[in-house]
Amino acid sequence: MSRRNLELNEVKLRLALRVRYIKSEIRSAKWRILVLAAYAILCWIIWENKYDLLYNESEGAFAYFLYRLDCGALLTWIVVIMLILLRGFSAPLGADQIEKDLIRAGITNSAGEAPILVRKKQDRQNPRILIMEFASRGIPLSRWTERQEAIEGALNVHVDQIELSPKNCRHVILRVVSGDFAFPKRLLWTQDKLASDGFTLVLGETLTGSATIDLSCIPHILIGGSTGSGKSVLLKCLLMQALKKHAKVVIADFKGGVDFAPIWKEKCSMCFDEASLLPALTEIVEELDRRKQEFGEHGIPNIDSYNRLYNHSMPRIIFACDEIAELLDCSGLSKEDKAIIMKIEAKLATIARLGRAFGIHLILATQRPSAELINGQIRNNLDCRICGRADQVLSQIIIGNTSAAERIPKNAQGRFLLPDGTLFQGYIFDEKTELEGLEWTR
Ligand SMILES: Nc1ncnc2c1ncn2[C@@H]1O[C@H](COP(=O)(O)OP(=O)(O)OP(=O)(O)O)[C@@H](O)[C@H]1O
Ligand SMILES: [Mg+2]
């Protein structure tokens, strides 16, 4: 196809999209119809009265010629203004610049063409979010997601979500927040943040809402990140919510409990060494076996069904360990100590494999989540991966990509990234205030 034909096709395609856009916009924004109708009426009134407005007898022999000339000018003005109005309605504001910016971000098809912005509007439920819909023109969704950071840079936005339009699979929808929006340094937990449904725990706030994890679907959590990134605070925030939801919480902390205020010892079981940890884990695994047998006898698939069916409140059990790698690191240990660690590891692996249906969960935090320290059976079942501030290697180990190194600033505390690219700020809370008054579920 010649270059001229290609250009002609491009113009045709854009025109067709713009016409479709005008139709849909006029349908969705009634004020535009009113503007167009008012303009049409005004034009009609002016045109009908053009003789009175333009004809001037005092101009003598040329009067009629001048009148005709003025009519021509008037018509030109009417048409030009109408075209300007239609152009304004035919593309979202700033569409051309956005399309150029996307070319800079490398979002082009094999012919080097940019997507066409067909809609831009604010999200009604969350006015912080801008929704942009593009005719993607053969650019696969994967290209958009791969180039997310470049898009953010070029458009000066934070991308919250990239998805195919549910109405038209050739359209891509970007949900973005202005690049000037910044996470607060400290987010204080308040009681109203506690999720009301099931066993959903709130991780923190994203740019557009809250990040949550439903333990009945994704049962185990791994929190990684370099020292001071906020792992212990996030871990405690999740445990606090679990306690509020009447879970039984067992905490292993090999820093001697310095990160846990004394009130934690009043509300949950705490283990500070391997000797006390092994019996605690054995008890959890025995409870798992007991529940397995009971559910099996009644033909019940999981804890939620059990509680619903028998109007019972069998508690979920959370085993949390801050700095799990310290616990599982066998280097330099005696044979006997190694044997204890192996037993601990085996119990953790059992919970990781079987815990979900029986409401038994692991939340593990560590600076070093490498495969040498946390064995495959445990690691592979820690499906919710959360990465705090980290270098590229650590980020890769935790969430399978290096994004945390680029997206979490070096001075950020309590900022975390999920594998799907969701960035969130965790909450801080006053441990005594939040835990006081809660019952210890044994
Ligand atoms: N969500 C948060 N918001 C603001 N500041 C936070 C947040 N979480 C943690 N911090 C700050 O960061 C400090 C370190 O947090 P924390 O002890 O949780 O880090 P860590 O990752 O567990 O470190 P380490 O690996 O050394 O144990 C806290 O004392 C607090 O001042
Ligand atoms: Mg810590």
Concise description?
Helix content is 45%, strand content 17%. It is an alpha/beta fold and 442 residues long.
Q: What small molecules does the structure contain?
A: adenosine-5'-triphosphate, magnesium ion
What spatial order of strands do you see in the largest sheet? Answer: 9-8-10-11-7-12
Q: Which regions contain 5 or more consecutive residues with pLDDT less than 50?
A: none
Q: What is the second-level CATH architecture of the largest domain?
A: 3-Layer(aba) Sandwich
Radius of gyration: 31 Å
Approximate helicity band: 40-55%
Mean pLDDT: 88
Number of domains: 3
General shape? elongated
- The percent range for strand residues is 15-25%
Q: Layout of helices and strands, plus pairs?
A:
Layout: H1 3-28, H2 30-48, H3 50-54, H4 63-90, H5 95-104, E1 116-122, E2 129-135, H6 141-146, H7 148-155, E3 157-164, E4 171-178, E5 200-205, E6 210-214, E7 221-224, H8 231-244, E8 248-253, H9 263-267, E9 269-271, H10 274-298, H11 303-309, E10 317-322, H12 324-328, H13 335-354, E11 360-366, H14 376-379, E12 384-387, H15 392-399, H16 403-407, E13 415-417, E14 423-425, H17 431-435
Parallel strand pairs: 7-11, 7-12, 8-9, 8-10, 10-11
Antiparallel strand pairs: 1-2, 2-4, 3-4, 5-6, 13-14
Helix pairs in contact: 1-2, 2-4, 5-7, 10-13
Bound molecules: adenosine-5'-triphosphate (ATP) and magnesium ion.
Residues 231-232, 259, 322 line the site of magnesium ion (MG).
